Please model this.
Amino acid sequence: MVAANNHYDALVVGGGFGGIYMLKRLLDQKLRVKVIDAAGDVGGTWYWNRYPGAMSDTESYIYRYSWDKEDLLSYEWKEHYIKQPQALAYLGHVVDRHNLRPHMQFNTELLSAQYNEERNIWVIETSTNETFTCHYLVTALGLLSKQNWPDIPGRETFKGEMYHTGKWPKSHDFKGKKVGIIGNGSTGVQVITQIGKENEVERLVTFQRSPQYSVPSGDGPVSEDYRRKINDNYDEIWDQVRNSAVAFGFEESTVPCMSVSPEERRKKFQEAWDLGNGFRFMFWTFSDLTVDEAANEEACEFIRSKIRETVKDQEKARKLQPSEFYARRPLCDAGYYEQFNNQKVDIVSLKEEPIEAITEKGIKTTKQEYELDVLIFATGFDAVDGNYTRLKIRGRDGESLKDHWSEAGPESYLGVCVNNFPNMMMITGPNGPFTNIPPTLETHVEFISDTIARAEKNNPRNDGTVVKGAVIEPTLDAEKGWTDLCNKLSENSLFRKSPSWIFGANVPGKKYSSLFFFGGLKEYRRRLQEIIDGGYVGFKPF
Model:
């Protein structure tokens, strides 16, 4: 029997960017809402990812909420890119500013969620041995939160310090130590750059699985004039963001790469390199870098030429130059390639000497053993659906979400809801937009809260032990149709031809499938509005 005070109109799982805004919206709708989170405080991704060098690849002025204009104009940000401590402080500030903390419960992990069809409620079991019930279950688990540990023999035998960047300790001391890092994606690049800059380690060895294309971030102090310009134009800025493709605050190019001369191409690439930001380099320069192989190779060769110019050791430079498409998550950095000019920083190409095992002393490759005091796994996440399939989430007739997605990979309608899982809504679930996270989260939260508001208006319910009310659920045809659309939109993308977490390729045994809607944020928002205007097309009547 669940205590009366443990029943809520809505339970939100996750206290990061999405969960905080979801709580605010639903409280404004006069619903009884609670947020639970396994972490010890607000922050989501930014609570756990405390690794050295952690920062957003979105510029500070739009890595925040758009809905509090007064706070946008007054809250301080001193640099072009927000770092982990500042991101965490900002989210805490928003929670306190809007008095949301009394509705949040931390150190409380969701263990299972079971839909009760007779009462039309969700029954939630948690790590605190509490049982909650709710009419609406909203998951804000994050795209990148389930840690991916590579299956390397002997990991448990290592006698030194061992960390995963997705769950970093509150403090560390690597001074005078031999540090090894496995992984060089976005996180790995940041960690390697920061630890290399600190220059306190005895040695830093990066075990590189695939070389990365990375461009400068363009980070640095923000001038008063720049801040004033942003403040004077926030309405226009957010309008442009919502009506763009990738939503990073710049106009995407409409010019094909090969339509201009080689000199013009290099000039444009250099301009983007000087301005900084990976998404700008990929989408602001030319319109077809992600779909045309010849255009993509032009960008590849430009970045490779920068690696050769920057890295003085020819052997290191050779290892750092990628040969695959420039079609993974676009990276930017604060001096990544420069770190390899430091004699203390070395690189091991795992394509040339694969890891055989982790030993008591370090890492043994096919060529030699590297003795280490610290081993860091910057090996990313089982992205998008990983946090859903690890949890015991069961919908109608006891079907688990894991089983629902076992045949064809993760499927959803709009990246928000799943057939046979009534009144469960996901913020940035599988097949949501491949766009800048804060405006995407806001789009999802606003759609979910508006949908709930409609359901509440049309389906009054009591607050006793028997709860009926609305059933918000997509049809199976709508779910299949949306999944097919996402697959179709990614068919011609070079992203699909590049093994990465974006299609689940980083996790052995995971089905290779489209995890995102590649149509852009403007188009995604247009489709949402079309669905709403049509009376919630694709949903069962509610």
Observations:
- The chain is about 30% helix and 15% strand.
- The chain has a mean pLDDT of 92.
- The longest strand covers residues 131-139.
- Residues 155-377 form one domain.
